[in-house]
C-alpha cells in the first residue's frame, strides 16, 4: 500500500519550469496564532522552492469567508497560483457548517473560473488543539502542504 502521509508528499522534489511565478498567499486574520504559522510555513516552502519573495503577495483578510474574495482578486490580477489559509473551529451553532461549505465551494469556483491552482489551506477542526496539531504539530503542517500543492501543480 502506498504511503500518502503529508511528509511523503512534501519530500517529493518539485521540478518547476522556472521560478518567476507570481503566487498569492491569502490568510485569514481570525485565529492568528494558527493562521500566522500556516502562512509562515507556506512562505518557507515557496522560498525553499526558489520562488522570489518579490513574486509572493501576502494578503491578510478578516476571516475565512473572505479568502474567496482574496483568491478571486489575485487571480484577476494575473497571479499564477493562490494559497488560501484559514481555520474554522466548530462552535455551538451551525455557523461552522455554512462557512466551511461556502469557502470550499468559493475556492473551487475560483480555480475553475481562472484555471489556476488555488490551494485549500482551510483547517476545519472541532477544537483549537486539533488546529494546532495541523499547523506544525503531530498532524503535519497544512500551510506547507498548501504551498507544496500549488508548486506541484505549476510543474506542468
* Sequence stretches where pLDDT stays below 50 over 5 or more residues: 1-5
Strand order of the largest sheet: 2-1-3-4
* Order of helical and strand elements: HEHEHEHEHEEH
Radius of gyration: 15 Å
Please tell me the total number of domains. 1
Q: Major sheet, described briefly?
A: 4 strands, parallel
> Count the strands?
6
CATH architect. name: 3-Layer(aba) Sandwich
CATH superfamily: Lumazine/riboflavin synthase
Helix vs. strand class: alpha/beta
If you average the pLDDT, what whole number results? 90
What is the CATH topology descriptor? Rossmann fold
**CATH level-1 class:** Alpha Beta
- N-end to C-end Cα span: 27 Å
Shape designation: globular
Total helices: the number is: 6
